[in-house]
Amino acid sequence: MGKTEKGIAVFRGTMSSHLIFIFERANSALITQDFEYAERLLTNALKNIAIYRRATEKKSSACWRVSMAMKRKLDRSLAAYLRLYERSPDNIELMLNLGRIYRHLGTL
Fold it and tell me: In the 3-class helix/strand/coil scheme, how is 30-89 assigned residue by residue?
């Protein structure tokens, strides 16, 4: 557990473990009829979920951009290896590299 902020414990870990911890604390607060504390816990959890969702969307879009860039590089590599293969069809290393490129592109 990390620092506390305005009486609310901040739990370090994955988002799912964080939410489980918050829900357990809120449930305990409801049992003891400390409704204000339960409300603060759950409100804070909702804010954190929104922040986590935005961060996840940014990471996934960055990942998508990288994968598209890699695919473009593979397409260019494939074209270059095909030109080389036309000149030297007996070169086994070229054939192996072509196989690797096709496998990464998902066409094999």
Answer: HHCCCHHHHHHHHHHHHHHHHHHHHHHHHHHHHHHHHHHHHHHHHHHHHHHHHHHHHHCC
Q: Tens digits of per-residue pLDDT, 12-39?
A: 555 556 777 777 888 888 788 788 888 8
**Tokens linked to 94:** 């070229």
Rounded distance, CA 69 to CA 73, Å?
6
Determine the distance from the C-alpha atom of residue 89 to the mean position of all C-alpha atoms in its chain, rounded to a whole number.
42
pLDDT digits (tens, 9 = 90+) for 70-98: 778 888 888 888 888 888 888 888 888 88
Give the separation between CA 68 and CA 61, rounded to whole angstroms. 11
